[in-house]
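User: I'll paste a sequence; please echo it back and then give the predicted structure.

Assistant: Echoing your sequence first, then the prediction.
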Amino acid sequence: MIHTDICDRIGIEYPIFQGGMAWVSEHILAAAVSNAGGLGIISAMNAPGEYLRQEIRACRELTDKPFGVNVMLMSPHAPEVARVILEEKVPVVTTGAGLPGVYMKEWVPAGIKVVPVVPSTAIAKRVQREGAVAVIAEGCESGGHIGELTTMALVPQVVDAVDIPVLAAGGIGDGRGVAAAFMLGARGVQVGTRFLVAHECQVHQNYKDKILKARDIDTMVTGKRLGHPVRCLKNPFANEFAKMEYNSNITNEEIEKFGAGSLRLAAVEGDVNRGSFMSGQIAALVKKEQSAREIIEEMFAEAEKLLAGGAQWVK
């Protein structure tokens, strides 16, 4: 069985985190992933602290295993979310879309294990100094907010830059991706898109169907003009958003207004025309709906076969 120091540090059976996806990663999915031996993560998304408090308590009703919360640092609710995390004694926090140092000053002394998502070696080094127990090196193959570097290029550079364990994210959807991540020096993986089709995932069936039907060329990146590029599946909304970005007569404010609420339209209402269906480039590898346990066990059984005899952490 594949076992790394990530498992020991976090208290999980498999070195896999479920990605923190807004309007997707709620307590039911998080609990299912944690019960299956990974680290389930609740997305705090762009919601008030009390929403997160309810999600945390609901998750604890479904699992006694470690779980985490993902904090989108751009959210105006980030300060109150940070306080709720302290008050509820959340065991693990992942962060994205910003620098978490101001909150780590309180989280780390409280014993909360902070694992930031990093797009570069410089940020990885910074959060290591601030007390992160590990980092997630996420390449631009991932869904949602992305950086510039690919997973293949980013992961080994981050591994060489820091002394703490590195998880790889972006473009990992099966055992081959897990094995590749370990060969690049990662000690674990974070997976988002494949968990979108978990039985326990509460997104609209239209979202799952779009993932299952996706081809290799069916994602695109929008939002570069606004400084926050996002990878999503191609559809009428994404195509129109892209056109607006290249129209100098349209202001940034108009573009932002056009995109407001689009992820909820996809995840909750299943609106295939007006919704933003965030997805990584591995969507074409996802062929069927499975339970969270089946997804994890299948990925790691395949990875173990590929790595057998060549990796010291295969036990």
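The first helix runs from residue 5 to 10. The CA atoms of residues 288 and 305 lie 22 Å apart.
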